[in-house]
Write a structure and sequence with these properties.
By secondary structure, the protein is mainly α. Helix 1 packs across helix 2 (21-43). The protein is built from 8 helices and no strands. It has helices spanning 9-17, 21-43, 46-62, 73-106, 114-130, 133-144, 149-156, 160-192.
Length: 193
């Protein structure tokens, strides 16, 4: 069992910076409930919330070498959670936009069917995960983080035309994958009625 240490933020951050797992566990226990509650209000999904909480703490562990520059972990944490939340909301909005458009194109599915929406969102995430690494990176920077194509080109040190090509190919792949998925889901729903 990990030792319980008094919570002194600066000391704790220094220990985490030195890869002290016990100190990280203390930090995790200090912040996880607040984070979970905040994210759950945004997502309304315990599964998605658990994934985001895990993602935030994984990022904290990966970035622990930067803690020497952190004056207040609370501010650092709030900033990280805010940025991740904004990215999440952008992704959800983009997923909704794609799902709405495909539902209308299919014509025979109820637009407001939550089962269809959840299934299409899951399929969208799967398709994004299947993209080649560079396309996936460009797609996420554009669609999930909201960067402009010029910003992506600068950040990844690639040409603007390469960014446009990656976005075009990723969207073609996603539309194709979601389109066939939508037909299957609508067909299954029609059989159940």
């Amino acid at each position: 069992m990990a030792e319980i240490i008094p919570y002194k933020e600066k000391d704790l951050l220094e220990r985490i910076q030195q890869s002290d797992a016990g100190a990280f566990e203390t930090l995790y226990n200090q912040y996880r409930h607040k984070l979970y509650g905040f994210i759950l209000r945004l997502t309304k999904s315990p599964e998605m919330t658990a994934d985001i909480v895990q993602d935030v703490f994984l990022k904290i562990w990966e970035d622990r070498a930067r803690f020497s520059h952190v004056q207040s972990f609370s501010h650092y944490f709030q900033s990280m959670v805010y940025n991740r939340s904004i990215n999440l909301l952008k992704r959800i909005a983009f997923e909704d936009e794609i799902v709405n458009q495909l539902s209308k194109e299919a014509g025979n599915c109820e637009e407001s069917d939550p089962v269809l929406y959840n299934e299409l969102r899951r399929k969208l995430r799967q398709l994004v995960d299947q993209l080649p690494e560079q396309q996936r990176t460009v797609y996420r920077l554009s669609k999930e983080e909201g960067l402009k194509q010029e910003e992506i080109a600068r950040q990844l040190n690639i040409s603007l035309s390469t960014v446009k090509t990656h976005l075009s190919r990723s969207m073609t792949f996603i539309r194709s994958g979601l389109g066939s998925g939508l037909v299957i889901i609508c067909w299954q729903m029609a059989l159940q009625q």
